[in-house]
Structures are given as structure tokens and as C-alpha cells.
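Inverse folding, one chain.
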């Protein structure tokens, strides 16, 4: 059998080992050193963010962002429902209350109307929400203008979860620079990887200083170890930051290739009955981290699950969309605002192999198999 085609594999650029060697040569095998500084600088230059803090994961970055914004036990945090659980878990770490918000059908991200309804509801009962967690799912920018306007109107801080969206832009501005704070992930499946890692981006120096302090065990200024706050061990290893520096060199190529995967799938599959692709509205530039196809159940003879099982037999990995948080057993008690947009996307979508290392031959093989599922039914 042919080797497995994965959904989104790591794709090294070639320079990573040189930076790792640098860490070994200088013996900075620690969560500090020139690779960490260099990687943070690269992230600032690439995104246009004033500050970047390299961390051990994107989840850690969300945790710190919430703490920096003062989120505490029993506070309300409004979070996009259609996302990976890591967007919402840090809310629970703090004993705060996640409230989930539906998506809108264009970008599949947070619906501004549902957001505003939720905010009004909590204001009415005297519990002003503490923060909004907005996700740019699969690399597609959310309706930023509308969301930012609502957050400003009610004076609520917004955190951008740009874990999947590094390199995507909204009217030529990089995602990760719109929120009070933003997070990135360099997990193995993301558009670039450090094998595991993340970053916190922000424009305010006080946020950055606070987050950096908390990420390295909240050590007060003293010759001995003095602590007046709870700290965390969330720094990124200097060895792994070396991988990040190498990956930053090829990030523009990675974005281009992910986008060309999307175009390939679209050219080869859009004629199939009931199959649709997510379009970019004017001014929106997705990094197309994963290509997703939707199967219109009224038109398509094939269900996403049939296609997934068929492709799995051919050793090709595909996956349903993120299951909305308000439908997860973990969050069954959590309040939810909206209708069924997120749920319908989950029911009708399928993520296709989208790695930047995929050769055209594999893409052709995948599209041929998908077409054959349609011709058989
Ligand atoms: C990957 C991901 C995260 C978490 O990042 P880690 O680095 O794996 O902790 C958070 N949010 C979204 C939307 C993600 O896809």
C-alpha cells in the first residue's frame, strides 16, 4: 500500500538544524537564549506586532492572555463555539465560565449578532463579560470590523486565537495584530511548527511585561527567588525556537503552497454535485491552513462520512470539522448563543489533506478518489 497521506504534516525548510546547532554550540539548552530572542523578533517583523513572547504552546498563550486581562473565577468569557477545545480550556483553568457563540456562514467564525445578543444578556443580569475569544478558523479571518466594533461599544477586550491563521491578512494587516492580545501555535500540525510551541502577541508593553513575568515562574526582582504571585513554566525551549527560526524562513512559501492546494482541490472538485468551498470575501486573505469542502445534503449524493471512510481505506487521512464546543460533553452545561450554523458546518464539512509538503501526484490521487466516490453513488 502507498504510504499514508496525512491531513497536515510538519514540513521542514532546511535551515532548522543550523539554529539547533547554534543552541548546542553555545550550550543554551534552556528556555532562553538567542534562538528565543531571534524567533520573537522574526514573529514581530513578520506580523507587524510590537511584542511577541515565545511560549511552550498556543494553549499556554491563551491562558496567559486571560490572566493578563484579569479574568478570574466566575467571570464570563465569550468564546467561538466552532473551534478546537484549546481555545476554551484555559477559561476553565481559571474557574471562569465559558459561554459559546455561534458562527456566521461566510467566514465560519464568530457571528457578530450572536455575540451582541450574548453581551446584552449578560449586561442585563449585571455580569459584564470579561473577554471575547475570537478564532480565525482554518486560516480565514473573522468578521473583524464588526466584532471589533461590538467589543469597543461594550468595552470588552478581545483575544485573537490565530493558532491556525499565521500569515493570513485582513485588508493587508496580519492577523494577530487586531486583538488586545493574540495567540499563535506552532504545534506539529500547524502551518509552521516548532514540534510544540506557541506565542503571545500584543501591542501594549504592560501586557507583554506581565505575560513574560508570569511565563517564567513570576520571579520578583531579588537575588534569591522571591514570589508574590502564582507563576507558570510556559517558556519555549531555545532548541525548539531554533526550529521556529528555520521555519520562519520558509513561511511565505508554506502559505503559497497551502493556498495552491486549495486552488487545486477547487478546480478538480467544485463541479461535483453539492460540493462547495469557502470563498474569501474582498479584503480577506486566508492562509488556507486546511482546505475544507462542504457537502450540501440536499444536492450531494455523498455524505462527508462516506467520503472519509472511503479515503481512509485508501490510506488517506481526512477529518470532520472541529466539533462545536457547545455540543461537547465537557461543555454540556455551558450557555450557548446562536442557532445552528456551527453545527451545520460540522455536519456537512470535511477537511482534506492540506500539508505544504504534498506533491501534486498525491493531490491528484486524492481528488480522483473523491470523484470516484461520487461516480459510484
Ligand atoms: C492548535 C490550536 C490551539 C492550541 O495550540 P497548541 O499549541 O496546540 O496548544 C488553539 N486554538 C486553535 C484554534 C488551534 O487550532
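Residues assigned per position:
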Amino acid at each position: 500500500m502507498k504510504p499514508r497521506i496525512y491531513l497536515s504534516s510538519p514540513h521542514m525548510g532546511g535551515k532548522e538544524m543550523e539554529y539547533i546547532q547554534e543552541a548546542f554550540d553555545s550550550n543554551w539548552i534552556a528556555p532562553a537564549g538567542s534562538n528565543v530572542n531571534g524567533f520573537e523578533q522574526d514573529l514581530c517583523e513578520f506580523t507587524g506586532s510590537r511584542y511577541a513572547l515565545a511560549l511552550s504552546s498556543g494553549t499556554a498563550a491563551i491562558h496567559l492572555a486571560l490572566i493578563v486581562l484579569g479574568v478570574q473565577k466566575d467571570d464570563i468569557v465569550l468564546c467561538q463555539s466552532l473551534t478546537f477545545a484549546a481555545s476554551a480550556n484555559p477559561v476553565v483553568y481559571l474557574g471562569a465560565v465559558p459561554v459559546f457563540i455561534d458562527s456566521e456562514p461566510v467566514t465560519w467564525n464568530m457571528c457578530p449578532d450572536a455575540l451582541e445578543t450574548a453581551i446584552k444578556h449578560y449586561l442585563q443580569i449585571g455580569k459584564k463579560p470579561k473577554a471575547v475569544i475570537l478564532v480565525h478558523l482554518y486560516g480565514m479571518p473573522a468578521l473583524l470590523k464588526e466584532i471589533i466594533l461590538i467589543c469597543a461599544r461594550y468595552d470588552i477586550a478581545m483575544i485573537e486565537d490565530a493558532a491556525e491563521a499565521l500569515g493570513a491578512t485582513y485588508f493587508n494587516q496580519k492577523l494577530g495584530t487586531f486583538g488586545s492580545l493574540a495567540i499563535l501555535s506552532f504545534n506539529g500540525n500547524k502551518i509552521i511548527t516548532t514540534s510544540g510551541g506557541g506565542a503571545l502577541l500584543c501591542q501594549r508593553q504592560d501586557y507583554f511585561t506581565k505575560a513574560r513575568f508570569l511565563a517564567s515562574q513570576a520571579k520578583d526582582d531579588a537575588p534569591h527567588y522571591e514570589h508574590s504571585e502564582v507563576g507558570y513554566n510556559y517558556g519555549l525551549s531555545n532548541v525548539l525556537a531554533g526550529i521556529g527560526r528555520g521555519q520562519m524562513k520558509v513561511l511565505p512559501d508554506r502559505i503559497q503552497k497551502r493556498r495552491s492546494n486549495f486552488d487545486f482541490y477547487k478546480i478538480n472538485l467544485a463541479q461535483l454535485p453539492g460540493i462547495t468551498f469557502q470563498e474569501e470575501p474582498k479584503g480577506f486573505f486566508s492562509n488556507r491552513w486546511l482546505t475544507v469542502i462542504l457537502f450540501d445534503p440536499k444536492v450531494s449524493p455523498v455524505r462527508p462520512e462516506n467520503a472519509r471512510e472511503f479515503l481512509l481505506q485508501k490510506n488517506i487521512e481526512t477529518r470532520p470539522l472541529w466539533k462545536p464546543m457547545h455540543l461537547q460533553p465537557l461543555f454540556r452545561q455551558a450557555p450557548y448563543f446562536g442557532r445552528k450554523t456551527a453545527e451545520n458546518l460540522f455536519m456537512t464539512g470535511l477537511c482534506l489533506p492540506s500539508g505544504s509538503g504534498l506533491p501534486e501526484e498525491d493531490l491528484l490521487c486524492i481528488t480522483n478518489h473523491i470523484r470516484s466516490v461520487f461516480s459510484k453513488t
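The chain has a mean pLDDT of 97. The CA atoms of residues 171 and 283 lie 5 Å apart.
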